[in-house]
Design a protein that fits this description.
mainly alpha, two-stranded antiparallel ribbon, 16 helices, globular
Length: about 425
């Protein structure tokens, strides 16, 4: 095994492990700022370090410090302490592991070797995701049962019933999709979506399965216990449900597990239905063959985009009233200097690519970086949809939740399989 092989293996594993964890901070910030925006109020904008608020991100650091140093209580009435401690760990670990098979770029070909851009390259693909994500509910059930609290038990029971109700429509939506893709390998699904329908329309899953994408997204909301499907922790009814007896870092693991699951489900939705890392109308080989014009376009467009972004920051990042020596203006000046320094560094790197690169490995690495950026951007937008829905729709009643799963989504998923199969057979 060469040094390059070891390096790429480490990069893939690091991406699969650390990107979901980094997105926890981003998603908590997005949740708070999004809630403020939708409710027409300010989000977190006071917590700072030496005057630097980072748009509210510093609040996450304060919360992390609070949870780390908070007293870790294990109530005396709990009889099964091992399961009580195991439950949050199980929820968090299963959320991380389910991302392991999601491809974040096309297969990287360097010389005579090819590297599948997944944390754990395997052919199981979507089957791995369904198998691992199903274990997450065991953590919720264990948490409720081991808490020896009636509200915790009710939360665990609700979570179990909810997962059963919505995993069936989700699986049936995938059956229809697999009829088209003819594979369970997520990398092959992503490559399939790089084709064009009628030579014009990208063959993304959302185009081929307009009914299936709605079913899958609704089921994904229910599987991640996000509003309006957060009945397992209905604080107005069962006082936070399954995690009512948890505190400190054990509660934080539940909290982080929810956001990791939100990121992973968004990444899977993007992979299955929104082209994964594919850039519309530009296949991997097209990008590789036109790498120098692409780099030239990036070098020209990047300063313009950054200029307008900095102007937007200057306009919006200021106090609402006149203040002498406004600290927010100083903050913007520092951020602007950092951003422009990064742009200059990237411009130098891209100029070096134009001068010294002759295609081949350099072009393929550049394209892989662009595809990773595309994949993360699409996932970020899908995560925003989660936040958007949470702060727009109220929580369902429990009978409404079950009725939607069994009486609406299940028949619709079966009808979708019938229609999809008929079209596939008729078109040969």
């Amino acid at each position: 095994m060469s040094l390059l092989d070891i390096l790429l293996v480490l990069i893939r594993i690091a991406f699969g492990a650390f990107v979901p964890l980094c997105f926890v901070a981003v998603l908590v910030w997005m949740e708070r700022r999004g809630a403020g925006f939708f409710q027409d109020r300010a989000g977190p904008n006071r917590c700072n370090v030496m005057g630097f608020r980072a748009g509210g991100l510093i609040q996450n650091i304060a919360d992390a410090v609070k949870l780390i140093f908070k007293e870790d209580m294990v109530p005396g009435h709990i009889k099964h302490k091992f399961y009580f401690i195991l439950a949050p760990t199980l929820v968090f670990i299963t959320a991380i592991l389910s991302f392991a098979v999601v491809p974040f770029a096309d297969t990287l070909i360097l010389g005579d070797k090819s590297y599948v851009m997944q944390a754990i390259p395997m052919d199981l693909g979507i089957l791995w995701f369904l198998a691992v994500v199903g274990f997450g509910v065991y953590g919720i059930i264990l948490a409720g049962w081991s808490s020896h609290n009636k509200y915790g038990v009710l939360g665990g029971l609700r979570a179990a019933a909810q997962v059963i109700s919505y995993e069936i429509p989700m699986g049936l939506a995938l059956v229809a999709l697999l009829t088209i893709y003819s594979t369970v390998n997520l990398s092959e699904m992503a490559q399939f979506q790089g084709q064009l329908l009628f030579g014009i329309i990208p063959m993304w899953g959302v185009v081929l399965q307009p009914i299936g994408v709605v079913i899958f997204i609704v089921a994904a909301f229910a599987e991640t216990n996000r509003t309006p499907f957060d009945l397992a922790e209905g604080e107005s009814e069962i006082v936070a449900g399954f995690h009512v007896e948890y505190s400190s870092m054990k509660f934080a693991l539940f909290f982080m597990g929810e956001y990791v699951a939100m990121f992973v489900s968004s990444a899977l939705i993007v992979t299955l239905y929104f082209g994964s890392y594919q850039i519309p109308w530009f296949s991997t080989e097209t990008l590789v063959n036109n790498s120098k014009p692409l780099v030239t376009l990036l070098m020209i467009g990047m300063p313009f985009a950054v200029y307008y972004f900095v102007q937007w920051m200057k306009k919006n990042n200021r106090s609402q009233y006149a203040r002498p020596n406004d600290p927010r203006l100083m903050e913007v000046r520092v951020y602007s200097a950092v951003i422009w320094s990064v742009v200059i560094l990237l411009e130098i790197v891209l100029l070096g690519f134009l001068i010294f690169s002759s295609g081949g490995a350099g072009a393929r690495i550049l394209v892989a970086c662009l595809q990773i950026g595309t994949f993360l951007f699409k996932t970020f937008l899908m995560c925003f949809v989660y936040v958007w829905v949470r702060w727009t729709l109220p929580r369902f009643r429990y009978d409404q939740l079950q009725r939607l799963g069994w009486q609406k989504l299940l028949p619709l998923a079966l009808l979708n399989i019938f229609i999809t199969s008929a079209i596939v057979v008729s078109l040969g």
